[in-house]
From TrEMBL:
Higher taxonomy: Bacteria, Bacillati, Bacillota, Clostridia, Thermoanaerobacterales
InterPro entries: LytR/CpsA/Psr_CW_biosynth, LytR_CpsA_psr
Entry similarity comment: Belongs to the LytR/CpsA/Psr (LCP) family.
Keyword Nucleotidyltransferase: no
Domain of life: Bacteria
Keyword Endoplasmic reticulum: no
Keywords: Membrane, Transmembrane, Transmembrane helix
Gene3D superfamilies xref list: LCP protein
Record-given protein name: Cell envelope-related transcriptional attenuator
Membrane-spanning residues: 12-36
Start and end residues of each Cell envelope-related transcriptional attenuator domain: 93-251
Length: 333
């Protein structure tokens, strides 16, 4: 080999070495910055042994498409709770309950609403409305109630209360929602109450329907609408629309902006997720590309009965059928 070629190879090797060192510094800097930004997030640990984590075995069926969760599905399920408490010093009931599922294998994000009036067995308390579990025993009992009734494997959660959800939405610059003309009057009524409770500069009433940017208080008022449309069923749809809009806002962030954005959100939340888990999940979702959040609701139409039990108007679900349908939605083949 000529001296010129050897010299060129030497220069190329040095250039690659320098490039490699620069890349390591950049990656290391991003990781260090990410952890620094997430240091403000406080982790509330739960004991996995007391969460009722259950291995699901589908009922006997001739249908070969029945899904059984297994490690190879690589799905992470997280419980999301919205607490309806006007008093920050009291544990309220979970006015909103959802399961967020991150499917790393199929690169999908899914959101399942759990109707608050579902009549289920709450461990240690017997049959009751599902949203009472959080008031009885906080996130641990609420997760255990989901796991034991629907054979789930949830071990982590994120909780936000009545006062903090608007702050999260405002941190992200609001959400884009298509408001119906029939929703405006009730939305403004809820908004007046929220403004009065929260104090400070009030959010303005909406004056017209259509797609528009809602601030935090307006979005909270929108998500609380219950007496327009299909009652509480449609309210869960509104809540999922707000979550989808938030998801789209976060998804636009790059790897460098993500930690700061997540930290700004989670400072208003309570969570069992560690900094590493939060960062890993966020980067995984960003890697999925341009995906929308798939949505579902329990109980599924046609799988429950409306009854009055001990003076409570409740939804009594077919637990076995809803469990099967939930698992088919989350752990698709």
């Amino acid at each position: 080999m000529s001296k010129d070629k050897q010299k060129k190879r030497g220069c190329l090797s040095k250039a690659l070495l320098i490039l490699g060192i620069v890349v390591l510094f950049i990656v290391g800097g991003i990781i260090g910055y990410s952890y620094m930004m997430l240091n403000s997030v406080e982790q509330t640990k739960l004991d996995d042994k007391d969460l009722g984590i259950t291995e699901y075995k589908p009922p006997e069926s001739s249908d070969n498409n029945v899904v059984q969760p297994a490690p190879e599905y690589n799905v992470i399920n997280i419980a999301l709770f919205g607490i309806d408490s006007r008093d920050p010093d009291q544990t309220g009931r979970s006015d909103t309950m959802m399961i967020a599922s991150v499917d790393k294998k199929n690169k999908k994000v899914k959101l399942t609403s759990l109707m608050r009036d579902m009549y289920v067995d709450i461990p240690g308390h017997g049959g009751d409305r599902m949203n009472h579990a959080y008031a009885y025993g906080g996130p641990a009992l609420a997760i255990k109630t989901i796991n034991t009734n629907f054979k789930m494997d949830i071990s982590d959660y994120v909780t936000v209360d009545f006062f903090n959800l608007p702050k999260i939405i405002d941190e992200l610059g609001g959400v884009d929602i298509d408001v119906k003309s029939s929703e405006i009057k009730l939305l403004n009524s809820y908004l007046d109450g929220i403004n009065k409770l929260s104090g400070g500069k009030p959010s303005p009433n909406l004056t017209k329907p259509g797609m528009q940017r809602l601030d935090g208080r307006q979005a909270l008022a929108y998500s609380r609408i219950r007496y327009v449309g299909n009652g509480d069923y449609e309210r869960t749809e509104r809540q999922r629309r707000v979550m989808e809009a938030l998801f789209q806002r976060v998804k636009k962030a790059g790897p460098i902006q993500l930690p700061g954005m997540v930290a700004s959100i989670l400072q208003y939340c309570e969570t069992s997720l560690s900094k590493g888990e939060i960062l890993e999940l966020g980067l995984a979702v960003l890697s999925f590309g341009d995906v929308s959040m798939q949505q579902y609701r329990l109980p599924v139409d046609g799988t429950f009965k409306s009854q009055n039990i001990r003076g409570m108007a409740v939804l009594v679900p077919d637990i076995e059928k809803n469990t099967q349908l939930l698992h088919e939605f989350i752990y698709e083949k």
